[in-house]
């Protein structure tokens, strides 16, 4: 076997038909596994489709119902506003965290610790019921009587607003760590070059650091956005008026609980799919260069 | 007439008794150095002797612990009022840096900007140069450093030597009167060193620019330097014209260093 003589090797070379296709290796195990998995998946679909307790015609009839679409719109509004708001807060908190002022960096640390630590559902219930322990919202100078603005809490903290604030507090805490990581990923040389050109801290952040940090920030940030969209379903606990809230309130009337959950599921998947596509293009855009 | 004479007499850079520590680790001891207008001063010395730190102190990228640095008769990093020194605000320190160019060992170009954008960014932001004018000047500078036609290249699309020449153009775009070079060629492949040195040589020979060059290129220091400074362990050991300091150094430490590198 190991001792192929020169004449043998020559024979083998001459035997090769240069025009014949290469015979591929057959992966029998893989093939078998594929068949089994495909059958299992089919079975799951089949059992859902033919399940006598699920009325698919009800699901279909509610998919485009005005109430559902209104809930979907609310979910989109809550998510988009929360995402924009928390991105802004995240940048501010990340920059504060890196500040030379001990007060600022400690406050930023505390913010991240608190809002990353509180379970979102607890945070939402707290913010949603803030009227129970804070009757008035006012803006003024601390420890003085000077106020610029004051209003009853319940007028401002509608379930919609409370949902946005709750989600933003949580998401911004996570995002600020992502932003900070992005800023830390930029070498000292970039700061020094910017400083040597006479640029101040604000200019350096805006023109040098953030654009470069984007590349590191965008992929996890995209995931954070999608997570926020899904987390927005939790605002149903304070009747945020979102997709899940309306789906549940409809099922409270028609008792089609499962069907209404499928309607909500369909829309959540659709929104997440759309976001993933957007994320893909944004990533490709920032990854260039 | 008299004003001009005065200007001639006053050095561009005057470093008096500068000390600098990082924590408990002192890196600069009682540095004294003056650099005249139009002069090219080369700084040599072993690794860790504080050459880069000294350069960074000159444009206040680092604070000093004692001593003074005067550039063009203004104190760097501090304001004098009522006979006392006041720390400068960031904005004022930035203003001072605008007129001092710096070129780094690792180029430090902004990777998300094209060569031309790298060059025009700060003149537009900090010198109020109109965009079109900055662009035209930028293209001129690129041609001057031998990079005509590369204005739309990103740093990653340029060789090390080309990147360093863009970095020089970027510093020149601020129209500085003083240029600081920190080992501009030591991160380059040997065959690329020449192109960068030749740009620097032209700059030094133009006579209008004052240059302080930290370098390991003894040949460059000999040819282009008006004076050479040898630093070791945070001190200026010896200063002299290149032929004197390089060929017949007075100090033992200078001799030892030169015999090791030559
Ligand atoms: N940011 C910093 N923090 C703490 N120590 C530093 C810092 N920068 C430099 N040092 C220390 O200061 C000393 C002088 O460093 P410096 O970079 O000025 O030396 P150098 O002469 O430029 O050396 P090289 O030829 O290797 O560039 C070194 O011991 C270095 O470890
Ligand atoms: Mg150095």
UniProtKB/TrEMBL annotation, chain A:
Query: Would you kindly state one Gene Ontology biological process term found in this protein's UniProt entry?
Result: amino acid transport
Q: In the UniProt record, does the keyword Transport occur?
A: yes
The way this protein sits in the membrane is described as:
Multi-pass membrane protein
Q: Which GO terms describe its cellular component?
A: ATP-binding cassette (ABC) transporter complex
UniProt KW Magnesium keyword = no
Q: Which GO terms describe its molecular function?
A: transmembrane transporter activity
Q: Which CDD domains match?
A: TM_PBP2
Domain ABC transmembrane type-1 span(s) in chain numbering:
72-279
Q: Which domain of life is it from?
A: Bacteria
Regions crossing the membrane: 31-49, 69-96, 108-134, 156-175, 231-250, 262-282
Q: Where in the cell is it found?
A: Cell inner membrane; Cell membrane
Name the keywords, alphabetized: Amino-acid transport, Cell membrane, Membrane, Transmembrane, Transmembrane helix, Transport
Principal location listed in the UniProt entry: membrane
Family in the record: Belongs to the binding-protein-dependent transport system permease family. HisMQ subfamily.
Q: What is the name of the protein in this document?
A: Amino acid ABC transporter permease
TrEMBL record, chain B:
The UniProt entry, under Pfam families, shows: ABC_tran
In alphabetical order, the GO MF annotations are: ABC-type amino acid transporter activity; ATP binding; ATP hydrolysis activity
This chain's protein is named Amino acid ABC transporter ATP-binding protein
Give the signal peptide range.
Answer: none
- Which organism's genome codes for this protein? Psychromarinibacter sediminicola
Which key words tag this protein in UniProt?
ATP-binding, Nucleotide-binding, Transport
**Where in this chain does the record put each ABC transporter domain?**
13-258
Q: Where are the transmembrane segments?
A: none
The UniProt family comment states: Belongs to the ABC transporter superfamily.
């Amino acid at each position: 076997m190991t001792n192929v003589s020169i004449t043998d090797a020559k024979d083998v070379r001459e035997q090769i038909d240069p025009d014949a296709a290469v015979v591929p290796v057959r992966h029998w195990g893989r093939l078998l596994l594929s068949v089994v998995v495909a059958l299992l998946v089919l079975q799951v679909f089949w059992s859902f489709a033919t399940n006598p307790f699920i009325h698919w015609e009800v699901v279909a009839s509610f998919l485009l119902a005005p109430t559902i679409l209104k809930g979907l719109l609310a979910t989109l509004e809550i998510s988009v506003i929360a995402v924009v708001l928390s991105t802004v807060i995240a940048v501010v908190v990340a920059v504060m965290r890196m500040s030379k002022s001990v007060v600022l960096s400690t406050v930023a640390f505390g913010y991240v610790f608190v809002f990353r630590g509180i379970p979102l559902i607890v945070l939402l219930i707290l913010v949603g019921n803030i009227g129970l322990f804070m009757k008035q919202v006012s803006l003024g100078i601390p420890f003085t009587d000077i106020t610029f603005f004051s209003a009853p809490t319940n007028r401002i903290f509608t379930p919609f607003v409370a949902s946005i604030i709750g989600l933003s507090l949580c998401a911004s805490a996570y995002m600020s760590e992502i932003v900070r990581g992005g800023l830390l990923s930029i070498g000292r040389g970039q700061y020094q070059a910017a400083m040597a050109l006479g640029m101040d801290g604000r200019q350096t952040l805006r023109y040098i650091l953030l654009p470069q940090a984007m590349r590191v920030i965008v992929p996890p940030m995209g995931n954070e956005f999608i997570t926020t969209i899904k987390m927005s379903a939790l605002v149903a606990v304070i009747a945020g008026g979102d997709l899940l809230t309306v789906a549940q309130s409809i099922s409270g009337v028609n008792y089609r609980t499962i069907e209404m959950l499928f309607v909500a599921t369909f829309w959540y998947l659709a929104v997440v799919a759309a976001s993933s596509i957007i994320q893909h293009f944004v990533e490709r855009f920032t990854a260039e260069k | 007439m008299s004003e001009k004479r005065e200007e001639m007499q006053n050095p561009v850079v005057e470093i008096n008794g500068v000390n600098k520590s990082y924590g408990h680790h002192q890196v600069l001891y009682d540095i004294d150095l003056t650099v005249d207008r139009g002069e090219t001063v080369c700084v040599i010395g072993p690794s860790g002797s504080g050459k880069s730190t000294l350069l960074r102190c000159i444009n206040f990228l680092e604070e000093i612990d004692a001593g003074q640095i005067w550039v063009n008769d203004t104190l760097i990093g501090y304001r004098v009022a009522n006979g006392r020194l006041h720390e400068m605000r960031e904005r004022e320190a930035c203003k001072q840096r605008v007129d001092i160019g710096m070129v780094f060992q690792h180029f430090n170009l902004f990777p998300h900007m094209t060569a031309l954008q790298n060059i025009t960014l700060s003149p537009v932001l900090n010198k109020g140069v109109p965009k079109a004018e900055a662009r035209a000047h930028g293209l001129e500078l690129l041609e001057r450093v031998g990079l005509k036609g590369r204005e739309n290249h990103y740093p990653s699309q340029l060789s090390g030597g080309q990147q360093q020449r863009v970095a020089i153009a970027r510093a020149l775009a601020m129209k500085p009167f003083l240029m600081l070079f920190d080992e501009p060629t030591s991160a380059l492949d040997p065959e690329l060193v020449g192109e960068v040195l030749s740009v620097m040589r032209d700059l030094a020979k133009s006579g209008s620019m004052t240059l302080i060059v930290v370098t390991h290129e003894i040949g460059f220091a000999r040819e282009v330097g008006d004076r050479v400074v040898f630093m070791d362990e945070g001190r200026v050991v010896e200063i002299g014209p290149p032929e004197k300091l390089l060929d017949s150094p007075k100090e033992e430490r200078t001799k030892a260093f030169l015999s090791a590198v030559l």
